[in-house]
Amino acid sequence: MAQSSNVTPLFNDLAKVEHDHNIACQDCALYRLCLPLGLHRNDLAELDEIIQRSQSFPRGHALFNTDTSFHSIFVVRSGSFKTTVQAVDGREHVTGFYFPGEFIGMDAIYAKAYKSTAKSLESSTVCELPFEKLQEFSATMPQLQIQLMSRLSRELSGDKSLMFLLGKKTAEEKLATFLLSISKRFQDRGFSAADFQLTMSRGDIANHLGLAVETISRLFTRFQDDGLIYTKNKAISLRDAERLKQLCG
Amino acid sequence: MAQSSNVTPLFNDLAKVEHDHNIACQDCALYRLCLPLGLHRNDLAELDEIIQRSQSFPRGHALFNTDTSFHSIFVVRSGSFKTTVQAVDGREHVTGFYFPGEFIGMDAIYAKAYKSTAKSLESSTVCELPFEKLQEFSATMPQLQIQLMSRLSRELSGDKSLMFLLGKKTAEEKLATFLLSISKRFQDRGFSAADFQLTMSRGDIANHLGLAVETISRLFTRFQDDGLIYTKNKAISLRDAERLKQLCG
DNA sequence: TGGCCGCATTGACCTAGATCAATAATCGTT
DNA sequence: AACGATTATTGATCTAGGTCAATGCGGCCA
Questions:
Q1: Where is the Cyclic nucleotide-binding domain (chains A, B) (predicted)?
Q2: CATH classification (class only), B169-247
Q3: Which pairs with CB-CB distance under 8 Å and at least 24 residues apart come from A222-228?
Q4: What is the CATH number of domain B9-166?
């Protein structure tokens, strides 16, 4: 996964993260994207203590499911995850994809129980944040508390957009929006906004967007024929991000 | 709006709330559903000070829109609201409906800007919670902080279910789910779970569920023909909540 | 108390995207 | 390297729900 030239120095070594499990928050390549941002040095050291760092999961492993008792929220350290909610009849919906620095499990705080399942899409690592401790700490670290609320609020805001997408957008608009969202997130992490690997299957994408796999497949083909993208299996290049943006609606 | 006999004493006077603007949190009929739950008496008194209480809005008035600068989140005191997100092309999606004790505007915390619009569906009142102050206070009131996070998390959890609904459910399942959700919320507020007024238009319901008005209208007719509900304009009675539940999927 | 105007209902028809079915390409395993 | 299993692509057909159009109804204001 060699990086192109426009990568900021900060993220040069992002790929190394998973080989270096015991790195402290302040030295972590994800620092700017992650929870500790804005914490005082002393507070950060304290926080460091409670974080269960860099647990590894092979591809397809469940980080938690609805039977797991709730104690922690998680931050992706490397790799990627998907979360799903399930109905009694077995239907499931992919509610989101999560990349390094993003939080998983915040919707469980209220009920103190996971109502969804999180699965790794590739070999991945997470940092585990014991929630009780986190709450204790926020009592004396206003900045931590602000960060947590901010995270919650950001996901909420994203979910509202997703509701619009699911409720109002056409298949074409859905896929264009999805591709640009992923692109943006790769870019934010110092990777190329144009070329990346889709770690999730076509089925996962289709499910997430409320479409059939066949529709996604056809759209990929059409977008490629129209010169918007180039795909080869899981690899994708955005060839005309501008036109893609116009397709988002 | 006379109440049926199974109403808890606590909520007997819910209808009076809007006539009694300066009632303190601890004496408010919504106390059990609202933010102050679990706060110590002294803390509550302090919180009371910063709350801008019971501002009134006539039907159709915007509580805020995307041009409003963000300073506060709101709790519905009486009446009801809808929130919408808009695309540049004018399409809009109704992201939620809000009843007494429910919070509006939490998705704005992250960006410190409202990305949605909130409109009253009937003559309504809100309590305004200045967010800066709220954050200051939570530094010394762990319970307040927990309440806030809990609220955020609960809405997040609800939005995931809504995503499932929008992405996977049939029109019939969507409407059944919607009706039972509203029913549950009325019940939680001490009103009848079976008979209530839908304060939103058919168009709002359709939009929220990702359907056309005509589809909603046809479903109402069919549900009524099947003895599941009885409707007369905005009034609705759930006649067979059990079967309705089975239709939710 | 009657006359709008916006909302709701109903029917006829249409279409975006689902479903079904048949390959084809990839991946993980031995 | 070969194989079975999973995942992706492509084509043919179908359908849930959308769109269009006409009519009905209720609430509101003069």
A1: 35-129
A2: mainly alpha
A3: A223/A175, A223/A176
A4: 2.60.120.10
